[in-house]
Structures are given as structure tokens and as C-alpha cells.
Amino acid sequence: MKVVNLKQAILQAWKERWSDYQWAINMKKFFPKGATWDILNLAEALLEQAMIGPSPNPLILSYLKYAISSQMVSYSSVLTAISKFDDFSRDLCVQALLDIMDMFCDRLSCHGKAEECIGLCRALLSALHWLLRCTAASAERLREGLEAGTPAAGEKQLAMCLQRLEKTLSSTKNRALLHIAKLEEASLHTSQGLGQGGTRANQPTASWTAIEHCLLKLGEILANLSSPQLRSQAEQCGTLIRSIPTMLSVHSEQLHKTGFPTVHAVVLLEGTMNLTGETQPLVEQLMMVKRMQHIPTPLFVLEIWKACFVGLIESPEGTGELKWTAFTFLKIPQVLVKLKKYSHGDKDFTEDVNSAFEFLLKLTPLLDKADQRCNCDCTNFLLQECSKQGLLSEASTNNLMAKRKADREHAPQLKSDENANIQPNPGLILRAEPTVTNILKTMDADHSKSPEGLLGVLGHMLSGKSLDLLLAAAAATGKLKSFARKFINLNEFTTHRSEESSWGSAFSSSTAKAASVRALLFDISFLMLCHVAQTYGSEVILSESNTGGEVFFFETWMQTCMPEEGKILNPDHPCFRPDSTKVESLVALLNNSSEIKLVQMKWHEACLNISAAILEILNAWENGVLAFESIQKITDNIKGKVCSLAVCAVAWLVAHVRMLGLDEREKSLQMIRQLAGPLYSENTLQFYNERVVIMSSILEHMCADVLQQTATQIKFPSTGMDTMPYWNLLPPKRPIKEVLTDIFAKVLEKGWVDSRSIHIFDTLLHMGGVYWFCNNLIKELLKETRKEHTLRAVELLYSIFCLDMQQVTLVLLGHILPGLLTDSSKWHSLMDPPGTALAKLAVWCALSSYSSHKGQASSRQKKRQREDIEDYISLFPLDDMQPSKLMRLLSSNEEDANILSSPTDRSMSSNLSASQLHTVNMRDPLNRVLANLFLLISSILGSRTAGPHTQFAQWFMEGCVDCLEQGGRGSILQFMPFTTVSAAPPGHWPTLQLRAGQHVAGELGVQRPGGRASSSWTSHPPSPC
């Protein structure tokens, strides 16, 4: 049979009883690909054929359901087809149509052009009109049935109609679509007025007026019904329909900010780059952000959890994922415990945490994604940990767990067959925490008494991902420095035991066994320390220097010989040129021996001498004295027993390759390639495969820069995964300024900073320097002209500046702001809204830096070169020993006109310098910059020339006072001269004058002899507005 149209195709399918998938296949064969099924009106044709009789045709209905599920037809075409059915007396047909609507009414979507999206809105409006008509018809039948004594006739259908109506309207998204349809109808009325010959052909088939009429009719019918349940359900639906026209205005009035990108970025930055940092600085920074941005506590805690889950999802596989898991499940609960102390009461904070979790449970896609990534119920682990820390009551914990469990039942299958047996990282991290404590206790024991037992413990740490788990747990709980110190002591202990007599006493066997254990303990401790330094920073190793004056071997080697990011080594440095006689012995041993004798080896000396030995071997190879086979034997000897020798050799080779020309690097790179591969031999020491895995990871990190420069690829075996996910992020052959502006534009458009962007910003800050980085980002801020964009940019910039807040603040307040305020050609850029935003950003940075600049710099900031204090002393010259102009200005009175000319004539109270009044160290760069900025602001406010820079000075002062009233450690207003507030134009900012004046007077506590505060505004009160 040749198919001519849709009707014939449907009839043929029905006659031959095709299954739904057979029908779909044949339909695609019958009809060309050019026209879509919506254009052919497939949904309407199927419904027309299915609803011919008193009951629907189940086979044809199955075709329609298959077409909906497989997206052959759009939701709008189905809704439009349903709304054309008007024989409500056929109960079975009506019920079938309601069931079809039930398939998708709660998940309406449209992927296409704008016209198709508007079409969905119109179709939904038509479907709502049809539902109301159907409900009214059912209610009418029920009323007639009650009068005739047969109430069951329409009650079931009425209940079904009200149920579908309630389900459709309960979705905010659906009501928003209906609101759009109503607005579209109004715009069509305007553009196609009937009085001007317009047509209503393009309008929706159902108008809002018709819906209101149906609603009135339905209310009249239901008023006579005796069922309170049905009446209540209908009234609720009517309320939802009547609220649709006012959705936009109500939404704008009740709109509350629920996203805080600064908190999000601060948490992401800490979890990504500073896992080993102490919790107290993070707590203070978060509290500072909370006060400055007036964030409610539940939303504040919610944003912290959101950032943690985003970090988990974004984290790269391997060490990065373990770090984020430890940060989320171990460190953040400890942070919240400390935040709890800032709360007014334990009960209040517990309720706030519970509210935050209630909000978090509504973010089902985020939680499902995190569960899928971690292969477990992350929320359950988190709730248990919070309950253990006293952040949640037992009842709240159980309630939240039950809600999340119910949500997970509707989620897609989270566990696949291949990873069903893999233990989830959160559980492993939580179990690793007590293991770290036990290992630290084991390491405190006397190593010489049971070296074999200690070796067994270390061997278990090397298996699988145990080492990274333990290190992540130790880093998150603040035990990593102690952990590293124990291994430094162990490594040093093996270097002092060159004679095996004391070791042999611990063994029942020969001295050779003692030498083997000594070599393994040295190698494992050396590799672990290298891995810790590369993963968490060398500061973890060096932070706790030995107070006894003893210099440990590993610390010496790491400082002088180990390549790191941003650290360039000189291969001709004396540290690479030890005793020549020992070097010759080592070269002969590596070249002539088939196997290194463990008893004869002093491994720390071999590690120090291996660089010079490699140079001799490399020269011999390049001059043809040694063949490639000899080089293979030498490299096999180097890596055959202890992997630390190979690490030391490659460390020197990396420094050596940097100094060579491109055509001179071949043999050096080939030697690195030989040392990187494992030795396939049975005559190796215990745990060799596990040690090779760590060695490969260490060598890959060491060689990354050199391999990138030389465009060389070396395969590092046994690593199993990409160990450097954020390496080489910048696009090649693009100016870094373009990269900076592009990435900031993307972040601003997105509204939050992700992990990858954080790494790119950090790389650009390192490459371009603090001034270049800060100056270009401030230029981007001043380009914004919309208020909402500038406010978002301020929040994002503050979070980006947290990469190195101290140095950025010095540059911003000491260089960029003075440049803008003193150059009249730039004053136009300080107008509102970008000027207001810049003032807010400057205040936030100043307060954050001042409240924390006495603390320790984080590990990520220590890597970057600090600004020299002498630069700021020369920029803002002050003399701490004698009175200076700035000191006098900071403590002067406007009443005393002779102050500047004759400082010696002042009274005792007015002769006090700022450093005496505030005990401020004016040699501190930040203090000098703040004092200079306030002097500049004071001179601007007292100037006769007004402009945008004057307004900026006011915004800056208002921001200082506003943040001051939120509480905080210290106040930058103490750097404000007494003349500042009174210098403002009379009546210009009286409230600010009063608040700032009261604060400074209270801070200084300076009184006149008569008991009155010696500030100028007490003598010259501000005039009223």
C-alpha cells in the first residue's frame, strides 16, 4: 500500500497491529526528513484517530505516547491537540487525555527558536483553558447527578481534573509560562488592533478573558457542592491562576539575594590552594565577608556548602579529588565549629545550620551530581560529621537524612556496575583521620628497636592511594607539618646509622638485612617528603625549623637541589659539586658493578654526589667514551635499589637542560627518559612497584617546565592518572592581558569563579606581577556602566584579590587610587556607578588586609616575591624618631593655626603623634599606605575644586564607617586626620561626620583640659541638611 498522508499511515499501522517502535521506524521511512512532525500535525492526527469511538484506541494512543517519549512531537503540539477535544461526556477519552498530560506537565521544556518557545506558552494557556472547561463540565455533571440521586457519575472525573489542574499550576515554571502567554496576548492586541483591520488568527486559541470566565463559572458550580475537599482544591487552583498576572511584580518585591560569589570564591580558593592553612585565618576572612556584605547566617552557611559541593564536582581525579574531599568533610566542619563561637548562642547557630541544610536539600541537581562523582550519599556523610561536631541536633540530623533519602529514590541510578565495589572517598577520608594519629604515635617510637615493624607500616601507606588519603586527612586537620617532621627525623636517622652494628642487633639475621631495611626506610621517607613538598608546598617541610641548630639532610637537599615552580636552579652551584674523590668512587660503582652493595652505601652522600657523577657520565657519553648500553646499565643501577637516587639525578638534569641550547639537550633528555622508567628485574628491594609510582609522579612534576619548553614528551609510567590537571592553562601565543580580560568577562557573565578560573588568575598574577594584575582588573571594573554589573564585579574582584590580598591592597591603595584621584583627566572614570563600586572594593580590601596583616602569610602567598618594605618607605617618607608632617596632621586640631609652623608650641594633648596615640608601627607598609591615602582624601575634601573625585572620597569614608558599624578587628579610621571630616563642605554629609567623629574621638580618647574631646567637629558642629 502506498502511503499518501498521515491518516493512511496510521490506519495501516492499526490494521497491521504494529508495535510502537515498529510504527516509529516505518513512519520515518514513509515520510521524508525535510518536514518536522509538528508541521505535519502528527500529534493532532493521532489523537483524531484515537478518539473516534466512545473509548480511546489503545494501540494508536501507544503510538502517541511513544512519539512524546522519543520527542518526535513537541509538548506544545500535544497540548494544542488535546485542547481541541470538546466532547467531555466521553469519560474514558477524557481520562486518557488527562493521563497523557500527566506524562509531561511537570517538566515542560522547549529547545528551539523563540517562536517555538512562545508557541509552548500559548499551548499551555490553551491547555489550561481546556482543563478549566473539562473541570466545569465534570462539576456540572456531578451536580446533575446529585439532583438525580447518582453522585458517582461525575465525581471521579472531577477529582481527576482538579488533580491535573493542581499539578500543572503548582509548578512556578508553568505559571511563568502562562504569564508570558498572557503578556504575548496583550502585545498582540496592541500590535494587531481589530479596529485597524488586524486579525486574531495568530493569537492563542484561548484568551485570558476566557480563562477568567471559566474560573467564575467553575466557582459558581462548585459553590453548590457538598464536598469540602473538592471545593478547597478548586479554590487553591483558582488562587494560583489569579496570582499569575501579578507574578512579575510580586517576584520583584520579594526577591532576595541567595548567591554570594565572594563567599563561594573564598571557600573555593582555600580548598584548591591552601588545604594546609590554619582554620582561624579562614574563619576570620569569612566573618569579614559576612559582615561587609550583610549576609544572613543561614545563607552564609549554605554558600559555604554550595562551594564545597561545586569544588568536589570540579576537582580533578586523583590527589585533587582527595584534597577536596578532606577539605569538605574534615576541615569545613571545624571551620563551622569556630564560626559557632561568633554566634550569639549555640541554639541559634544550630538552627541556622539546620536551615542551611534545608535550603541545600532543595538543590537536588547539585547534590545528585556530587553523589554521582563521589559514588556515595555525600549529604549523609556531611550530616553525620556535623552532628558529631555538635553543629546539628540528633532530631535535625535524622530529619534531614530522611528527606535526602527520599530525594535519592527519585534520582537516576548513581552507582554503575563497574564502580559499585569502589569505596567512596568521603568514607575513606573519614577513616584516614584516626589512622594519621596512630601513625604519628608509631613514628614517635624508637626506630632502632623495631625497624622491620616500622617498614611494614610505611609499606602499607604506599599501597594504592593510601598515602594521598593520609596526607589529605593530615593536611585538612592541621597535622601535615607534624607528619612531615616525623619523616624528616626518620630520614635523618637512617643517615646516622651508616654502621650496621646497632641495626644488626635488631635482627636475628645478617647485617645485609639491616642494610636493606635502612635503604628502604631512607628511600620511602625521601620519596614521601618529595611528594608532600610537591603536593602541598615546600613550606610544609621547612615551616618548623629545628631549634637545636642541626641541619637535616633532606631540608638541605630540598632547598638547594629540588626544582619547584618558579625556582630556577644553577647546575654549576657548589651544592652540585661535592667531594671529588667520592664522586669518582660513585661513578666507578655505577659503571662497573652489576649491583650496588647495600652495606657499603651511605645513601645521603650518594644523593649529594649523584649530580656530579651524572655530569661525568653525561660528558663521557657525549664524547663517545661510553656507549648507550653502558648508559642503560648505569641508569638501571641508579634506580635499581632506591628510587631517591633517580630523583636526585633528574633534579640536576632538569637544571642542566635549562642551560643548554635546543640542539644540545638530546642526550640529557634521553637520560631523563631512561631514569623515569621502572626496572624490570626480580632482584629489587621490597615495595619497589609502589615506590616507582611515587617516583614517577615526582619526576613528572620536576620535568614539567622543561618538557613544555622543549616540546618533548616523556612517558612517566605507573602514575595512572593526570597528576597536574591545572598545568599549562594559558592559551599559547596570546598576550596575557587579553587572557586576563577574557577570563574576567566570562567570570562576570557567569557570576561566580570556578576552580579553573582561580588557577588561571593565579598564573596571570604570578606572570604579570601584582601591579599589572590589579591595574588591569580595576580598568575592567571602571568600564562597567550598569549598577548590578558593578556590584557583581566588586564581589568577584574581592574574591580574586584574595589570591594575594596584602600585596594587592598595597598596590590598590598606594598606587592606583592616588593615581586616579590626583589626575583630573581620569576623574570621569570615578563617576557612579563604577566609582561607587571601586570605593566599596577599596574599603573591603583595606579592612581585610588591616585585620589580618599581622598574621602569617598563607603558603600560596609565600611563593610569590614580597614587596620590599623600603619601596614603601621611599614612596611615603616618614621619620619614626622625630615629628613629621603626617604625624602632626594625623593628630592636629584645626583650631590650632600655629601647629604646622611651630609644632613645639603645642600643648601636651595636641602634641601627641599618631604613633603615640595609636601605637601604630609606621614602618609597616600597609600602615604607611593607609595614612597617605587618608591624607590625600583629607586634602580632596578640603579643596575648593569639587568633582567626581570628591564624591569618591565621600563614598570611601561612608564605606569605612558602614563596615565599622558591622564590627571587626581594628579600624582603619584611626589613620584619618582630625581635619578630614570638618574639611567636607558644610551640610554635605552630617550623619557621616557625626558617626566618624564619635568613632575617632572614642578610639583616641584624647580630652581637652576642660574635659571636652579635642576634635575640630566639637567646635564646628555640622550645619543641618
From TrEMBL:
Signal peptide per UniProt? none
GO molecular function annotation: transcription coregulator activity
Quote a single Gene Ontology cellular component term: mediator complex
Q: Where is the composition biased (Basic and acidic residues)?
A: 404-418
Q: Does the keyword Transcription apply?
A: yes
The subcellular location is: Nucleus
Region entry Disordered, spans: 402-426, 1005-1025
One GO biological-process annotation of the entry reads: positive regulation of transcription initiation by RNA polymerase II
Instruction: Say where the protein is mainly found.
Output: nucleus
Instruction: Tell me the keywords, alphabetical order.
Output: Activator, Nucleus, Transcription, Transcription regulation
Tell me which InterPro entries the record gives. Answer: Mediator_Med24
Which residues fall in a compositionally biased region of kind Polar residues? 1013-1025
Give the family from UniProt.
Belongs to the Mediator complex subunit 24 family.
Entries under PANTHER family matching the protein = MEDIATOR OF RNA POLYMERASE II TRANSCRIPTION SUBUNIT 24
Indicate what this protein is called per its UniProt record. Mediator of RNA polymerase II transcription subunit 24
Q: Which organism is it from?
A: Tursiops truncatus
Its gene is MED24
